[in-house]
Amino acid sequence: MEILTFVGIILLFYIIYYYYCYFTRPSPLPGPFPFPFIGTIFQIGLNPRKWAENNLSDSIDIWELYVGPFRIIVPCNAKYLDKIYLSRDVSSSSKESKFFKRGIAAYDEIGLLNAIAFNNNFHKWKRSRQFVTKVLMSKKYHIGFINRSQKIFKEFEEQWDKNDVTILDFSKWVSRYKTKVTFDTVIGQPLYNLSSLDSLSKAASEYIAMFIFSVFVPKIISNIFMFFGFNAMKKDSVFLNGTIRSIIQKRRDEIRNGSTTNFNLLDLLLITNLSNDSEEYIEDEQSLNDEEIEGNLVEITAASIEMTKNALSFLVYNVAKNPLILEKLRAEILKVFGSDTNLMITYEALENCRYLDALVKELLRHSNPGPYNLRVLDSYECVGNYHFSPGTWFWLDHHRIMNDSNHWKEPIKFNPDRFLSEENGGTGEFNKICKNGYVPFGGGLRMCPGRNIVSIDLKLLAVLFFRKYNIELINNESIKFVYRATNHVHDFIIKISQKQNTIT
Ligand code: HEM
């Protein structure tokens, strides 16, 4: 009885303290009323935008929610990003910005402190980021990626070429294609077995979904879920870790014993900074160790599969749905690549495709598969006219920012012309967009290091697909997707047939 009274008193004090903090918070904002321990999880669920659409007026461009005791601010207007996406030079040793942090405790348990995306330690983050960026942003890597991806696409398309018409779930097809390309270009492992492709793609998907779970589910609830669904997610991501670790050790030994290095991120990371006379040398840094490489490869593999496959589904959907856009795209393909639908596509030729570039930019504005970003404030700061204290989380609503009708004309319309200047047949709209009005890859110091490879990937598949095949959408008035840290596309059924010889 005495213990119960004691626990009751502690709880009461906690609740009083919780609401004291809540009612005295700086700059209160609109949002659901929170409860101790659980915050606003029952009102918000795992997708804040849904709640905002049903409960907030369009004029509200910044609001708040709670995860247990953590306050999360949701800015939905470009003007709030100026301070958050403040640029700093990665190579400088100056202290990071006040919004540098993104880390979430749950990720520490599966060994992500050495990687990039969820690393809160500036020096460890900087080290990994420099090595990975050096490879991912290099022209050498881009050319290798284009060549390998085309080879794999050819293997995959053989099946379609045997039939006049193929009906398939594109979301499944693209999961397998992207998993194969990713394992080949990131880890250097050929995968042939369909069930391995499916299970690795699922592991990548669960790994990314875990992010949203870690952000929005209060600890008290996630501990209960650990016994059920969340545990399965964790198992999947650990499975990806285990797979990669043994491959790294094997490749390091092989390279030590004189094996030539191949084109893939793993080999390129293994050799970076082995000697200081290479052109890729990073000053004052030792090469990455196995543990660091492992953390980075897991993260890059998961992002490459899950983010890009969904982007590719949205791309095919938006082009197939807009005959005028398809016509302009095919006209450019004919001009740049000629009428041979099997011609190898080069890096330089892709660079020359202005309309394709605008198409991909519009895709990442209109149907970005990763519509939000998370940053954590680590000291007192003022954003807009509001004051925030250290430890406040910021859930940046990129989707609303890039679809804001105050900045974009008819934002719901899929229109690549906005990214073309008037002299190139477009509307020139993008050139007049306000600062931070277009942020598909975030901004500042932690901007996505995969952005160039994503753009190449999307452009390449658009050419490979639409120069050779007619795509018809089946039962697709709208594309089906569910938010699981990415907009995860499912049941996207299309009909594929070979185009006749000439490109119209
Ligand atoms: C359509 C595809 C993708 C989109 C829309 C996307 C978007 C983003 C965004 C918004 C961020 C947060 C940036 C910030 O905090 O300012 C990010 C970070 C990151 N992305 Fe991507 N990404 C995509 C694909 C990829 C790919 C393919 C890779 C790997 C090759 C990748 C690797 C990363 C990494 C490592 C980070 C963490 C960067 C850091 O914290 O320093 N992403 N991405």
Automatic annotation (TrEMBL):
Membrane-crossing segments per the record: 6-23, 207-230
Keyword Oxidoreductase listed: yes
Top-rank taxon: Eukaryota
GO molecular-function terms, A-Z: heme binding; iron ion binding; monooxygenase activity; oxidoreductase activity, acting on paired donors, with incorporation or reduction of molecular oxygen
Cofactor entry: heme
Record keywords, A-Z: Heme, Iron, Membrane, Metal-binding, Monooxygenase, Oxidoreductase, Transmembrane, Transmembrane helix
Binding sites annotated in the UniProt record for heme: C448
Similarity field: Belongs to the cytochrome P450 family.
Name recorded for this polypeptide: Cytochrome P450
